[in-house]
Design goal:
alpha/beta; eight-stranded parallel beta barrel; four-stranded antiparallel sheet; 22% strand
Length: 368
Amino acid sequence: MKITCITVFQVDLPLEHPYWLSGGRLKFEVLDATFVRIDTDTGITGWGEGTPWGHTYVPAHGPGIRAGIETMAPFLLGLDPRRVLEVERAMDLSLPGHLYAKGPIDMACWDIAGRAAGLPIADLMGGGSRTPRAIASSVGARSAEETRAVIDRYRARGYVAHSVKIGGDVARDIARIRDVEAYRDPGEIVLYDVNRGWTRQQALRVMSACEDLNVMFEQPCETLDDIAAIAGKHASPVSIDESLVTLQDAVRIAREGLADVFGIKLNRVGGLTKAGRMRDIALAHGIDMFVMATGGSVLADCEALHLAATVPDPHCHAVWSCQDMITIDIADGRGPRNIAGHLHLPEIPGLGVHPDENTLGDPVAVHG
Ligand code: MG
């Protein structure tokens, strides 16, 4: 089997509600999505998606995905897409770094490999759990009253896990955490996601003030060095998300004991092939996982769900459903959707969902 053509589409995915990251730093209303169709000489087609969570969240850029694919495409045409490691090496040789640009190609290749084998991707990766995965909400940085209202909105959809965005103002953060903890139902999972919003001393002030609550903080500071510097000075569980980009990051976090949980976002780390290795590093070091899309449609959510299904049930805390935050559905209700706050693995070979091409507009590039 050979890759014969790589067709690229760009779609703006409007957010249902404007979104603020921690401390009101980063507001945006539309996600810049890239969809990729890979055709092969056998007639089997695969789809991938790359949708950064805006261009201010991490070093990933919507137009950069299209530019990266244009650079890599000549090195990918003619390769067997089922040999995902060969495709990965060709991408890494032709364009070092830029993992987010590689994610959609990797995803489409796994889709093709699954369809050719007659297996869902999770089973092709070694076996996927059918236990439905709890979806975590994403509660933007707001006042205590607004935070409760957003949590209520997600509870009405069946959600039992919430990622509450904090960071920026120590006193306000402590008050919001205490308010949410008082509002939390027994059995609900709440993660406090700082999105790098604290300096080292701000992190330590909030974490020590909330020590009695034993809550988990995600990405409290900007860098791994910052998180390492505070590691011995607080007692709170930590999840690392934005600073987990490469396999080398995963190894450092695991060996130095910097996190109790990996937040693996598929597009940020470059797709399933690379993310699968991070999963194994985590499991080998007693680290649990949140697995999710960086952003995007049901395709991106579905990719993350396949990886989440390969994580043993007790070690997978939650997934995400970014599709619930955007106002366009490019797959007309198909694929994994929120059912009582959970996503169910599709029993369909490959990714398990393809877009309606007529929702994508004309291609912005055709390579091949
Ligand atoms: Mg996060």
